[in-house]
Amino acid sequence: MNTAFAAAMRRASKETRAQNLVEATRLIQAVLAGRPEVAAAPDAASGAKAIGADDARWSQAAGLSLGDALRHFKGGLLTPDPFAKSSGASGSKTRGETSVPGGARFETRDFVCAAGARSYRLYIPASAPARPRGLIVMLHGCTQNPDDFARGTGMNDVAETRGFAVAYPGQTRSDNANGCWNWFEPKHQGRGAGEPAILAGLTQFIVAEFGIDPSQVFVAGLSAGGAMAAVLGETYPELYAAVGVHSGLPTHTAKDVASAFAAMGGGGKTRESQGAPRYPGRTIVFQGGADKTVHPSNATKILDAATPDAASISTRRVPAGEARHRPAAITTMADQAGDTIAELWLVEGAGHAWSGGKAGGSFVDPMGPDASLEMMRFFTRKT
Is residue 223 part of a domain? Predict the structure, then answer.
């Protein structure tokens, strides 16, 4: 057994003992793919370690499948909650537990496929525990985690009224130091690989497990999560019937970190100039008019890309007094049949935060309008 292999499996064993199963999975995948030197990098940086008696255990993992290798290292450990010690936004205090009504479940799960692995939280409604009527995949923003995002958006409560399940995949800090979905990297912008493949596979698994109606499967996200939701809509249009993008960015506007920041500032090439494919499903966009992180012009670009063949466009302004929330300009686009195919809610005075969000979550604006309610309405409306 070579030194790189031993170091890689040593790290996998350490991560498993610490109950970091997603990271352990990533390390084992690298080993099984014949890249132990990648998995062993941190150990190598800290100096070579003597190979001791525990090498026998690492040797026993050689040649095992990913699942068998994980079970080998878990050694009877209970499946952990990978989000239990995570806080919300950077600098915020640790929040409390996510409340769950009687009869509902909020499970912690792991999903593993050829493209990689992620842990996720799954809300199963009390109103339809055996067979939820639909599924919404919710993608958090940078520095957030599934529990934080569930609390802040209040989507579980909204989903309960419709009998929907809600999945909250969690990004790992080993894949992005700030916990961002890597929407700006080319390897995570296409079908069949990277994060889109992991998230689509996770979605398909849940749909199959509960027998969910395929026409009632949706994806939404905030900021980097919103940008990744747009990527999923484009790369897996047959899987997601509609997409919700909150304070996000259009696809194909970035290829690295530098261009990502340029796009966030309102620059970058548009989809039209790059001849990129378009998402054929329905799209709802929420954007704060005073957002200093993602320029509001990105919302218009998302809408334009989603509705190149819109037959009619209408805009109305909802004043603050009428709906008891921040004023908002609502743009609606319809097709030739008069069916709504896209909406843009430009919320006046709102920053980079989930509109109508709940206390206990990060990056929320309780003043509203309620993005979770409006997204659910848009997703489930009859076209």
Answer: yes
